[in-house]
Amino acid sequence: MTQFNKTALAAAAGIAAMVGAGQQAAAQDLAGKTVEFVIPFSESGGSARWANFYAPLLSEALPGNPTVVVRYRPGGGSTTGANWFQEQTTNDGTLIFGTSGSTQFPYLLGDPLVRYEYQDWIPVLASGTGGVSYLPSSLEDKWDGTANQLTEEFFLYGSQGATSLDLVPILAYDLLGLTVDPVFGVEGRGDGRLMFERGEANIDYQTSSAYIRSVQPMVDSGLAFPIFSWGSLDAEGNIVRDPTFPDMPSFKEVCEATEACSTEGVEWDAFKAFFVAGFPAQKLVYLPGNAPQEIVDMYNKAFNDIIARPDFAELAAAELGVYPQLTGDAARRAHEQATTISPEAKQYVLDWLNERFQISFN
């Protein structure tokens, strides 16, 4: 090869490298752009508060400080929005999607409404959360830390659907021996709370962020009282008290103290499997599966920078509770935990859904 050819090739390589670097820099500069943070829920629930908590922080952390806007696509217990996201090919970093247990459960159960595939998406954040179940103050005299005196009561519960995140509370109430009639069709947990406030329901639960903001005022004014949190997981995978509500018993404690409930056997194993998918690894942020690595890296860095903020712990505690916020490999592990389930636990819940609600996916 002549010296001229070598020089020409070197120059061409240099130009290509500069072009590639320029394209990558451009891809990582979102100045003047709008990032849509889509969630498959209404604007009144815990997922909305979670997304709106992160939106302004992302605007500060992403290169170019784009405007980050939360968009709502409720319906089908969140499957409508997830099915929509599955079809999206926007890969320039201007579209992210937030899921919750209500999105994961139909996927785990093989719901025919599901046309999305979690394994096609790229996780960039996993947020653990908790939840609190509560009753109207008129029943407080019957609550002694167990459900033993409530088995003769009739409860109405506003629900997004038996295969949504509401599977966890409905199954838990059944394990406690309570008679709970779910009123299906609400679009988000916030709508279930509104039913409780209007007296149309007399048992409810909210995720931690929604409980802190919207239910605690009812408790403070004497209109409601908490009965338990769902709990959290320790390093060994045991259910322990929720760190956001350390003075509140976990569901496991209440179950152990209630005559009709047991923390052993396939029923408990099934509850715990869905509890893990629905709470410790509940909320995840995804990029479309075709997003290039530089966009993935950009979001990993942005979320890492957010979590490293000196004021983040205080901000998060006030809005989300005290839960892990995971990125990178940790987010991917949480994604795997939230989207897999043992065959035995799955079959138990499928049988329960069929017997309790005549829901079958065959």
TrEMBL record:
The positions making up the signal sequence are: 1-26
Query: Is this entry keyworded Repeat?
Result: no
Keywords per UniProt:
Signal
**Coiled-coil annotated spans:** none
Say yes or no: keyword Ribosomal protein present: no
Which family does the UniProt entry place this protein in?
Belongs to the UPF0065 (bug) family.
Q: What is this protein called?
A: Tricarboxylate transporter
Classification from the root reads: Bacteria, Pseudomonadati, Pseudomonadota, Alphaproteobacteria, Rhodobacterales
